[in-house]
Amino acid sequence: MITTTTLNAAIDKTYYVKQFKLGASHRATEVFAEAGGKGINVARTLLELGADPYAMGFLGGNNGSFIQDELDKQGIKHDFIRVSGESRINLNIIDESDYSSTEVLESGPVISVDELEQFRTKIAAQSKRTPWMVCSGSLPRGVALSTYAELIEIARNNGTKVFLDTSGEALRSSIQAKPFFIKPNEKEIAELTGQSVADEDGLFANIHALMNQGIACVTVSLGEKGSITGYQGRLYRATVPRLEIVNTVGCGDAFVAGMVVGFSQLKSIEECIRLATATGSANALTQSAGYVQMEEVERIKKIVNIEEIQWTSSK
Ligand SMILES: Nc1ncnc2c1ncn2[C@@H]1O[C@H](COP(=O)(O)OP(=O)(O)OP(=O)(O)O)[C@@H](O)[C@H]1O
Ligand SMILES: O=P(O)(O)OC[C@@]1(O)O[C@H](CO)[C@@H](O)[C@@H]1O
């Protein structure tokens, strides 16, 4: 069983328009509404990869009911705390001329002290029966920045490995709790370290520094440029050939799903990265956010390039 937590779930609403223009009125050519938020995307991808996901977090209002119904329809086991606020809707407008995307993300409901306490109790029980836990996404209002660190601590005490995918201060505050895996993207690692990924030497040094702080595996995902992963003191570069992409929202979640499946099946690190990269890239080929097709994952796995980076610090 792989547990996913989505503290700030969302309906991901995707509008396709012929050409997006600021300040203009558009008629959508296609519209999709999906149960989303990073952890829910991970859960859906895990199911497609043949794993056994169990989705947890907070859901509220009509939007929360829609998300819950979708999870039921998709056959994803779940146990969410119902909250008094309304789960958010996140908007993604995709310009069909170049498949660029413009997102508007709501901040989500305010979680009360009591609702958070109910969640802590559930997670403490759940971490006794799950060897793997994925904590993904932003923290909703009312939830302290230290919450992911707390969850990591609870999980570790029960022998559960945590894969953490979050950003900004929520990521910074969780590093000292030593999650097993983190996956900042270009923007997130720059925010965390103050260095751009354009400086590869600096990026490699930063990944080593994070491993030395006790994070077993660190991937910096670089969108269409692939990723750099650090594990057991070594660095690996993954690249994928150019693909006919339509929607990259959720690629990071699909990558995380591939990585946790790889580790849970005791695959080699190269195989974990290959599966994660192919799953991340396969997500970009589907119109809805956070969906992959297994045939595409299998096809892309064959064309992913993984190489170990020979690097020693110049300092
Ligand atoms: N345009 C693309 N073409 C091919 N593969 C891609 C593309 N974009 C992303 N990927 C794959 O997905 C992985 C994760 O992508 P990315 O770095 O964009 O994550 P992210 O910013 O966390 O995404 P999100 O927050 O939308 O889930 C990449 O390492 C790569 O393997
Ligand atoms: O606001 P957060 O929680 O950081 O990100 C939310 C979100 O943009 O991330 C997913 C894509 O990764 C979408 O399903 C969702 O709308």
Mind explaining what this structure looks like?
It is a single chain. The protein has 315 residues and is α/β, with parallel strands linked by helices. The protein has one domain: 3-Layer(aba) Sandwich (UDP-N-acetylmuramoyl-L-alanine:D-glutamate ligase), CATH 3.40.1190.20. 36% of the residues lie in helices and 26% in strands. The chain has ten helices and 14 strands. It has a ten-stranded mixed beta sheet, sandwiched between helices. A four-stranded mixed beta sheet has the order 3-2-6-7. Strand 12 and strand 13 form a beta hairpin. Helix 8 runs antiparallel to helix 9 (269-283). The chain is globular, with a radius of gyration of 19 Å. 1-O-phosphono-beta-D-fructofuranose binds at residues 8, 10, 12, 36-38, 41, 90, 105, 137-138, 167, 249-250, 252-253, 289-290. Catalyzes the ATP-dependent phosphorylation of fructose-l-phosphate to fructose-l,6-bisphosphate. It catalyses: beta-D-fructose 1-phosphate + ATP = beta-D-fructose 1,6-bisphosphate + ADP + H(+); D-tagatofuranose 6-phosphate + ATP = D-tagatofuranose 1,6-bisphosphate + ADP + H(+).
